[in-house]
């Protein structure tokens, strides 16, 4: 193991090595030198554009450098080239612009170019970073500085409603792959300067923009520090999705229980931020990490907070029941019909016995096969090209639902149990939680097939022990069930009405817990 | 390496079948047991369900078949069934135990120990005694509507109790408790085969009275009613008929909606008197005669007549209990609860004392409702 680890380290360094000394150079006053360096660096990058132009009346040359496709070409043409080539000469004649001596660069930046984002650069490294982010860099002969214009613009997905988290009530916008859009979606909802979006760059090659969002005064400062610390320790070649980060910065890595929630919904992120949590966004991924979270929150859907609190509470109880059933129903069924026959009412036993006549497999194997088949159908359904989708669902329904029963390979009650369980595992609003359920279910099935109810009890105890031993950024994973907190339980199994929702759920280190202040006579709804 | 081998061992352990594992398709479902006793041998008949799949059409064969075996003990007889039957029976599903009268009149010690020890015998199921036929003949009768004898007898007992109020269902645990507890004896409802209509059907008929582990006699219909009223429990449902106070040939049907007996023993020296106070209420159901019954004096008269009828039933039951000298009324327990000191002296000679116990019966019956009309039916003259 040690051998493997060390060789991996060496390889990582090599990948980042080659043009290190070139990149570290400061910009030179000679444009030729700069362009030569850049040409070496951009060798093989066919999408790089280096456009030479004559600048001002004299023989001064300038260069415009950008990546085609990332920068907005129309903006470059209208606001940079047109100004530099045509309007500059006109201004020159009027004498409005002074293009002599060292002031020229400053007047270019401050008086001539008509772009909102302009910044001067000092080194080749900065030039490379900006052009690969979609900005356009102007280098002018005789100045050891570059000018960068914000021209980022590329074709991206429009803001659409997320397919994985469908809601009926409430906002339907979802995050996209472009981090600027995503931060804008949040900023639009939280119009406050205490809503912070701190940016950092991760990935030696990908140079991915990563932002952490939190609300100052609400998010515990210790938590913010801890997240920054953990992020700053990441040294990886690329970060393509938030999944990379969530695996690396988790408290407990060797477990199926996710300690961070992935979501595509800005309103959900905002809700979490207002509860003192933090969000991590990665450029290029519509999935946003929310942390810290605890397991009981998996039955909460953002929709709960938008519908009336009574139906919302009932939905939560329904989801809790579905969660427990999805976890244990096949194992309970297997345990009962293999070990605990006396628990079945006689008429039901007779029905089950009649349908199981001639089934060649033990109940445990039958359940395992059917459950695996269901999982395969689900997985296939996810990846299917749209054209073959109906074919597979028909074959799945026919083979599993009908032909297998008629052939006597499986019994009807087992099909019913597995189908019901399959549906119930999708009731949980979080896809992550559904995955946890489906993995744990197989463990329960093994336990039930071996030891019956005793096995299920042991499995439940082991799972409970594992869950209470986990934490998410220091927050106990089973909070507020363990450690128990009655005040916060009011927003787990039921949804507390907004007019009673005075405090935020407590996160260790939180200072500002009051969410809503009530008038002295408690509630403004009462008429005099 | 150690971890790997441990993991492999655990997986192997998980894959090995557990001890109590029985697949349902390798098991069978016994629905009821009939126990007869002939020539010092237990004759066992088991009603085995014949599950037919709803998928396959034409599965309209008989719903059950009977397996028989003999043995010196109950469990031996039960196991002897396996000589002819290849599937493991899930004994805990057996929903009724039927005793042949021969068996009931022999010693219950044959049975009681087996019940209390065996986890496969359900304790909340009814027991009945076969009357006028062997238990095996009884369990062979195909009941009306219900596919199995167990559900048929259980439902018979329950519905007749709420609708008619004659016989009291007795569960296994109650029977066994009464066998062992001092100062109370068991009774069981009896079932017979009614062959009158040309076709055999099950019929409830009387109750069997036990004393000292043996069946010693029976209760007829009126005595069974009396026994039901004398139980120190809230009783709901039942029907009884009295003579009309106005019409010589008319009858009046009353429904017993609620009745509660309060039994207090009065011990004066060697003389024991049981003070029985029965508070009952009921509804006016019908009259076969004519005449207006709905006036206050008439009501009082009706109440008195009804109380008389109930008292008669109670007295008949007490008389039968004292004739058979079987304390199935549980008076011994009642005395033990209120006079524990005296009971210690009484207990050894309770057999001699019980027939001499006096009963002071007071019945208070009140009519509550008369349903859709508040007047008697008026005929056109």
| Number of DSSP strand runs of chain B | 15
- Helix percent band of chain A: 40-55%
Radius of gyration of chain A: 30 Å
Largest sheet of chain A: 5 strands, antiparallel
Helix fraction bin of chain B: 25-40%
Secondary structure tally: strands of chain A:
12
Unreliable sequence segments of chain A: 1-17
Description:
The complex is a heterodimer of chains A (528) and B (381). Chain A has helices spanning 2-16, 20-23, 31-41, 73-94, 103-112, 124-132, 179-189, 221-232, 242-249, 266-274, 309-338, 346-356, 363-383, 389-406, 412-424, 431-469, 486-489; strands at 48-54, 61-67, 118-121, 136-140, 146-149, 195-202, 208-215, 261-263, 278-282, 288-291, 471-472, 475-476. With 528 residues, chain A is of the alpha+beta class. Chain A has a five-stranded antiparallel beta sheet with strand order 1-2-4-5-3, with helices on one face. The termini of chain A are far apart. Chain B has 381 residues and is of the alpha/beta class. In chain B, α8 crosses α9. The mean pLDDT of chain B is 88. Chain A binds chain B through residues 337-339, 341-342, 346, 349-359, 362-363, 405-406, 412, 446-447, 449-452, and chain B through 13-18, 20-25, 27, 29, 31, 49, 51-55, 90, 92-93, 95, 120, 122, 150-151.
């Amino acid at each position: 193991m040690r051998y493997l680890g060390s060789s991996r380290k060496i390889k990582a360094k090599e990948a980042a090595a080659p043009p290190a000394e070139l990149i570290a150079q400061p910009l030179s006053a000679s444009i030729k030198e700069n362009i030569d360096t850049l040409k070496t660096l951009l060798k093989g990058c066919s999408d790089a554009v280096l456009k030479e132009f004559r600048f001002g009346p004299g023989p001064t040359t300038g260069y415009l450098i950008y990546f085609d496709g990332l920068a907005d070409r129309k903006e470059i043409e209208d606001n940079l080239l047109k100004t530099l080539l045509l309007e500059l000469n006109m201004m020159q004649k009027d004498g409005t612009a002074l293009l002599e001596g060292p002031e020229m660069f400053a007047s270019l930046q401050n008086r001539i170019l008509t772009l909102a984002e302009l910044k001067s650069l000092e080194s080749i490294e900065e030039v490379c970073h900006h052009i690969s982010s979609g900005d356009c860099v102007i280098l002018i002969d005789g100045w050891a500085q570059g000018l960068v214009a914000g021209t980022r613009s590329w074709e991206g997905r429009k803001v659409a409603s997320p397919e994985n988290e469908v809601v009926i009530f409430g906002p339907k916008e979802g995050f996209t792959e472009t981090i600027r859009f995503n931060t804008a979606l949040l900023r639009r909802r939280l119009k406050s300067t205490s809503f912070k979006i701190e940016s950092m760059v991760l990935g030696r090659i990908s140079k991915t923009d990563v932002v952490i969002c939190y609300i100052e005064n609400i998010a515990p400062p210790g938590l913010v520090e801890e997240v920054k610390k953990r992020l700053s320790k990441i040294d990886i070649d690329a970060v393509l999705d938030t999944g990379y980060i969530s695996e690396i910065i988790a408290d407990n890595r060797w477990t199926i229980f996710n300690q961070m929630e992935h979501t595509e919904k800005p309103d959900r992120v905002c809700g979490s931020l207002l509860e003192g949590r933090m969000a991590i966004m990665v450029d290029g991924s519509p999935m946003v990490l929310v942390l810290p979270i605890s397991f009981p929150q998996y039955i909460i859907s953002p929709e709960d907070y938008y519908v009336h609190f009574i139906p919302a509470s009932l939905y939560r109880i329904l989801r809790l029941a579905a969660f427990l059933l999805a976890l244990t129903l096949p194992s309970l069924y297997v345990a009962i019909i293999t070990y605990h026959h006396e628990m079945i009412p006689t008429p039901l036993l007779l029905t089950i016995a009649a349908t199981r006549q001639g089934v060649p497999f033990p109940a445990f194997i039958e359940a395992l096969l059917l459950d695996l088949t269901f999982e395969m159908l689900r997985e296939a359904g996810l990846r299917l090209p749209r054209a073959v989708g109906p074919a597979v669902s028909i074959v799945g329904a026919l083979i599993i639902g009908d032909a297998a029963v008629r052939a006597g390979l499986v019994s009807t009650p087992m099909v019913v149990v597995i189908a019901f369980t399959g549906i119930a595992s999708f009731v949980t609003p979080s896809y992550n939680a559904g995955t946890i359920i489906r993995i744990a279910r197989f463990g329960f099935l093994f336990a039930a097939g071996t030891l019956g109810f005793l096995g299920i009890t042991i499995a439940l105890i082991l799972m409970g022990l594992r869950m209470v031993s986990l934490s998410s950024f220091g927050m106990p994973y089973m909070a507020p069930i363990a450690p128990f907190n009655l005040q916060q339980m009011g927003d787990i199994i039921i949804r507390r009405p907004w007019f009673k929702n005075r405090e935020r759920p407590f996160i260790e280190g939180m200072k500002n817990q009051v969410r809503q202040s009530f008038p002295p006579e408690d509630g403004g709804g009462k008429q005099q | 390496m150690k971890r790997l081998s441990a993991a492999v061992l655990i997986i192997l352990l998980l894959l090995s079948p557990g001890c109590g594992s029985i697949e349902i398709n390798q098991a069978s479902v016994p629905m009821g047991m009939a126990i007869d006793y002939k020539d010092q041998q237990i004759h066992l008949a088991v009603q085995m369900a014949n599950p037919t799949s709803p998928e396959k059409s034409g599965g309209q064969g008989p719903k059950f078949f009977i397996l028989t075996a003999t043995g010196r003990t109950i469990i031996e007889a039960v196991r002897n069934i396996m000589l002819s039957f290849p599937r493991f029976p899930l004994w805990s599903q057996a929903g009724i135990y039927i005793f042949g009268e021969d068996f009931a009149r022999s010693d219950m010690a044959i049975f009681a120990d087996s019940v209390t020890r065996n986890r496969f015998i359900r304790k909340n199921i009814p027991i009945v005694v076969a009357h006028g036929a062997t238990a095996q003949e009884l369990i062979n009768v195909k009941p009306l509507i219900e596919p199995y004898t167990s559900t048929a007898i259980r439902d018979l007992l329950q519905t007749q109790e709420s609708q008619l109020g004659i016989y009291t269902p007795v569960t296994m645990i109650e029977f066994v408790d009464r066998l062992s507890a001092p100062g109370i004896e068991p009774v069981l409802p009896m079932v017979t085969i009614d062959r009158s209509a040309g076709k055999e059907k099950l019929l409830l008929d009387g109750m069997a009275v036990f004393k000292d582990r043996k069946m010693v006699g029976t209760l007829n219909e009126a005595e069974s009613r009396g026994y039901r009223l004398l139980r120190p429990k809230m009783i709901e449902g039942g029907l009884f008929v009295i003579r009309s106070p106005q019409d010589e040939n008319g009858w009046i049907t009353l429904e017993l909606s609620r009745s509660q007996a309060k039994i207090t023993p009065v011990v004066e020296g060697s003389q024991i008197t049981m003070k029985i106070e029965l508070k009952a209420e009921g509804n006016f159901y019908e009259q076969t005669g004519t005449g207006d019954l709905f006036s206050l004096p008439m009501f009082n008269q009706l109440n008195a007549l009804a109380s008389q009828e109930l008292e008669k039933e109670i007295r008949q039951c007490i008389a039968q209990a004292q004739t058979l000298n079987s304390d199935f009324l549980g008076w011994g327990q009642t005395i033990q609860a209120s006079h524990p000191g005296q009971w210690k002296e009484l207990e050894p000679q309770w057999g001699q004392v019980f027939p001499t116990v006096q009963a002071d019966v007071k019945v208070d019956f009140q009519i509550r409702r008369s349903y859709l009309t508040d007047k008697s039916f008026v005929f056109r003259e």
